[in-house]
Amino acid sequence: MSQSYFDNILIKDVTPIEEIFTLNEHQILDDAVRLFGKENILSAPVVDDENKIVGIVDILDIVSCVVKILPDVEVITTEELLKAGRIIEVKEIKSVMKKYSGDVGITDQSPVSHAISLFTKGIHRIPIVDAESNKIINILSPTSILHKLRDLQFGEKTLKELSLGQEELLVADMAYPVYGIIHLLNENSVTSIALVDDEDQLSGQS
User: Fold this and answer.
1) Rounded to an integer, what distance in angstroms lies between the CA atom of residue 60 and that of residue 71?
2) What SS3 state is found at 42?
3) What confidence category does residue 195 fall into, taking pLDDT thresholds of 50, 70 and 90?
4) pLDDT on residue 26
């Protein structure tokens, strides 16, 4: 589906000023997890000691790091899961982050269609950088674009017409093991899975 609706709308036209939460590349993954939990976010830009952007880290990067340590067996014990989880207490963010490039960052002159393509790749909060200084000037989230859609009276169009949303829905029942959920998140590059009850009725999300 073409994203032509958004090719002529610039980032600067849809982005309100948001509080910027950053992480230093030398901080450990546990710092990122704590920040995500405290601020209710799923990703954050990573900067160097000069406060220039060098990458972005999200919850999937951390999940993937933990999954790689888990033994490749059908049943994983709680002890093994906890042991793997301790990696976040020693591993630096720079070792798992996505390195900054045009693939993970944008300028305020970029089209909104570029941002949407990044959202579909699992990047939830996109750093907007100054092209000259390479420093972060703002953050773009999906919510910003949704608010702009309302203002531009796109409300009558479907998500499919606007190339938004996810066609294939991942589901799991409440008896699904935690390590199984972790593998599903990692393998499908998603941050949530629909939970269903015994009658396949939606009961929440993980």
Assistant:
1) 19
2) coil
3) confident
4) 97
User: 86-122 burial, b if ≥16 CB within 10 A, otherwise e?
Assistant: ebbeebebbebbbebeeebbbbbebbbbbbbebbeeb
Tokens representing residue 43 in the block: 């990703």
Which tokens in the block code for residue 27? 């901080």
- Sequence-separated (6 or more) residues with CB below 8 Å from residue 119: 126, 142
pLDDT (0 to 100) of residue 132: 77
pLDDT of residue 116: 81
Query: What's the farthest any 2 CA atoms get from each other in the chain?
Result: 56
**Number of Cβ within a 10 Å radius of residue 8:** 10
pLDDT digits (tens, 9 = 90+) for 116-127: 888 877 777 788
* 129: β partners: 136
Q: What are the start-end ranges of the E strands in 38-93?
A: 43-47, 53-58
Phi, psi for residue 179 in degrees, rounded to 5: -65, -30
Regarding pTM above 0.70, the answer is no
Pick 84 or 26 by higher pLDDT: 26
Backbone phi, then psi, for 6, in 5-degree steps?
-110, 0
51: left (phi over 0), alpha (psi -120 to 50) or beta: left
